[in-house]
Design goal:
The protein is α+β, with helices and mostly antiparallel strands and 110 residues long. The chain folds into three domains: 1-43, no CATH class; 45-79, no CATH class; 82-110, no CATH class. The chain contains three helices and six strands. It has helices spanning 47-55, 65-75, 88-91, and strands at 4-5, 12-13, 19-21, 27-32, 36-37, 40-41. Strands 1-2 form a two-stranded antiparallel sheet. It has a two-stranded antiparallel sheet with strand order 3-4. It has a two-stranded antiparallel sheet with strand order 5-6. It is globular.
Length: 110
């Protein structure tokens, strides 16, 4: 099995026991069991809130809380859950028709 990381929290997933579950009960190869269950994210939070939550596990990663926050600030925008899928035009400003599913997308805000 190739090494995968959770596309929500970045946790290495080294065994199928760490994989989350899809709505149909199948295993999700993209998200870990701590983030994703029955096809839904367990925590409905912003990326900033999630970074704060993840910083509580800094010791397990061998980091200080500040180091973990900085690491997450760089990593999370590259992960599927948090990556903005907007086009250049959409990402440049207000677009009420934006179809991005990223909860961090601010194109629809005025």
């Amino acid at each position: 099995m190739e090494n995968k990381i959770c596309q929500s929290c970045g946790m290495p997933m080294t065994s199928k026991e760490e994989w989350g579950t899809n709505q149909d009960g199948s295993l999700s190869v993209e998200y870990c069991k701590y983030c994703y269950e029955n096809g839904k994210f367990k925590d409905k939070v912003s990326m900033e809130e999630y970074i704060e939550m993840c910083s509580e596990y800094a010791d397990q990663a061998g980091m200080t809380k500040e180091q973990m926050k900085e690491y997450c600030k760089k990593l999370f925008p590259t992960l599927k859950r948090w990556k903005c899928t907007c086009t250049e035009a959409c990402a440049s400003g207000y677009n009420p028709n934006c179809s991005c599913t990223n909860p961090e997308c601010h194109c629809r805000e005025k």
